């Protein structure tokens, strides 16, 4: 019987790279419906402590799921930096000194959102005319 090789597990750094790439890919391409302001809010990650979501176009929000007044909104790249202390932002002592990327590392950077596949050519819409530009690769 032939031995089936198992794929090697990704390192945490590789998972982080894929997660960031998927988030950037999500920003690159949108359907016409996704450009509609009312449908732009989308949860990227949520657990019993925090929620990370895209609010409108390139504005992202990190919020405490138990306190609607605790959180911050910023551009996506701001969340990749280490100047946001989750404990201070979300008023959670157990997270003091931890950045958002530190927190996501404890979760192993799960991709819990839809994005475009890498083999898709850039696609965008002229909203005034309803015209789609670009195409999916064959």
Q: Give the strand tally.
A: 6
Q: SSE string, helix = H, strand = E?
A: HHEEEEHHHEE
The main β sheet shows up as: 4 strands, antiparallel
User: In whole angstroms, how far apart are the ends?
Assistant: 37 Å
Strand content: 15-25%
The chain-level structural class is alpha+beta
Q: What is the helix tally? A: 5
Strands of the widest sheet, in order across it, are: 1-2-3-4
Shape: globular
| Rg over C-alpha atoms, rounded to the nearest angstrom | 18 Å
Instruction: Report the uncertain regions.
Output: 134-138
Which whole number gives the mean pLDDT?
76
Q: Give the fraction of residues assigned to helices.
A: 25-40%
Secondary-structure map:
Elements: H1 12-28, H2 32-35, E1 42-46, E2 50-56, E3 59-64, E4 67-75, H3 76-80, H4 86-90, H5 100-106, E5 124-126, E6 131-133
Antiparallel strand pairs: 1-2, 2-3, 3-4, 5-6
Protein described:
- Helices cover 28% and strands 24% of the residues.
- It has 138 residues and is α+β, with helices and mostly antiparallel strands.
- The strands form two sheets. Strands 1-2-3-4 form a four-stranded antiparallel β-sheet. A two-stranded antiparallel sheet has the order 5-6.
List its salient traits.
alpha+beta; 138 residues; single chain; 4-stranded antiparallel β-sheet; 5 helices
Summarize it.
The protein is α+β, with helices and mostly antiparallel strands.
């Amino acid at each position: 019987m032939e031995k089936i090789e198992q794929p090697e597990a990704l390192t945490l750094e590789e998972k982080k790279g894929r997660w960031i790439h998927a988030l950037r890919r999500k920003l690159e391409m949108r359907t016409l419906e996704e450009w509609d302001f009312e449908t732009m809010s989308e949860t990227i990650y949520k657990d019993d402590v925090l929620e990370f979501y895209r609010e409108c176009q390139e504005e992202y929000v990190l919020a405490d799921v138990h306190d609607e007044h605790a959180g911050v909104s910023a551009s996506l790249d701001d969340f990749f930096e280490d100047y946001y202390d989750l404990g201070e932002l979300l008023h959670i002592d157990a997270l003091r000194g931890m950045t958002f990327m530190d927190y996501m590392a404890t979760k192993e950077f799960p991709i819990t959102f839809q994005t475009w596949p890498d083999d898709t050519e850039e696609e965008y819409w002229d909203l005034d005319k309803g015209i789609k530009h670009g195409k999916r690769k064959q």
